[in-house]
Amino acid sequence: MARAVSSVRIKSLKAYTVEEAAEVVRVTEQTIRAWIKQGLPAMTEKRPTLILGWALKGFHEQLRKKRRRPLQDGEFFCLHCKEPRTPVAGVVEYQRLSDAHGQLRGFCSACEGICVRIISRRDLPKWADLLDAGTNDRRTA
Ligand SMILES: [Zn+2]
C-alpha cells in the first residue's frame, strides 16, 4: 500500500538538493524540476540547485490543497483530465450505488472522457435539469 505523502517530513530549515527533495516528497527529480519551473523557489545560480525546506513545504501543501478542492455546483470529476469539469448536458445518467448514494456519470466537456460525481440520493432532484436535458430513459433512480 502506498503511504500517504505528507509534508510533515520536510524540515523547514534544511536546504534540499533536487534529489533529496524528490526523496522526501516521494516524487521524481523530474517533478521537482517541473515544480521549480512552476514557481517553487529554489537557488538555481550554483550547482547543486538547492531548495529550502520551508519553500518546498509551502509549495507542496499548496499543490495538495489545489488538488483537493471540492467540486463546485454542477462540476463533475473527470477521470481523464483528473480535474473538476462540467459534463456535457443531456447525456448524464444516474446509477444507484446504495440506498443513500448514487453516481452521476457524464461526458467531460473538455475531453469527452467519463466524468463522475457521487451524490446523495436525496440531492438527486437538484440535478434534474442536467438529467432531463436529454432523454430520460437512462435514468434509473
Ligand atoms: Zn476531461
From TrEMBL:
Source taxon at top rank: Bacteria
Pfam short name (any one): HTH_17
UniProt-listed SUPFAM superfamilies: Putative DNA-binding domain (SSF46955)
InterPro entries per record: DNA-bd_dom_put_sf, HTH_17, WH-like_DNA-bd_sf
Residue ranges constituting the Helix-turn-helix domain according to the UniProt record: 16-52
Name of the protein described by the UniProt record: Helix-turn-helix domain-containing protein
Source species taxonomy: Bacteria, Pseudomonadati, Pseudomonadota, Alphaproteobacteria, Rhodobacterales
